[in-house]
Amino acid sequence: MHPIKAIALAATLALPTLATAQDTEDFVEARHGFMSLLGVNMGQLAGMAKGEIAYDEAAASLAASNIVALTQYDVRPLFVEGTSSEDMRDSEALPAIWENPEDFSAKFAGLRDAAAGAPDAVKGGQDNIGPALQKLGGACKACHDDYRKDD
Asked: Which residues are in coiled coils (predicted)?
């Protein structure tokens, strides 16, 4: 085989691997973005609950509504094989996600359940945020305990 043909063949065979590597990085980046959106809205609620941010009923309800909307998103496609913390440096997703996909989905459904009703629950005063935030935080923790790499 001519050297040029060998190089062309090697490059052609490497392209799917390079594309897959780029795709997995995109999925991890998308996951990080998704989790950041949850975190920003949870942070706003936590700030109001702690009194670090002035209570604003409309803003609290909006943050809770954003969380509800995010929990309606099907995150499973963002968790593709080869994107665990053992596969990629920037991933915090433990391999247990792919070992226990039904439980992982159930934990995310728990967040969806905890978010339901939160936009109304946070209305009526700062004291109402705490109980809703505890439900949301508990659902986040349940998933993170089993499926997120410790910092």
From this structure: none
Helices (H), 72-115: 96-99, 101-115
Please report which residue ranges of the chain form alpha helices under DSSP H.
3-50, 57-71, 96-99, 101-115, 118-121, 129-147
Q: Which CATH superfamily is domain 3-147 in?
A: Cytochrome c/b562 (1.20.120.10)
Q: Please state the length of the chain.
A: 151
Looking at residue 133, its amino acid is: L
Please state the pTM of the whole predicted model: 0.84
Domain boundaries, the chain: 3-147
- Contact yes or no for 75/103 (Cβ under 8 A): no
Over the stretch 2-36, which tens digit does the pLDDT of each residue have?
A: 555 544 444 444 444 433 455 889 999 999 999 99
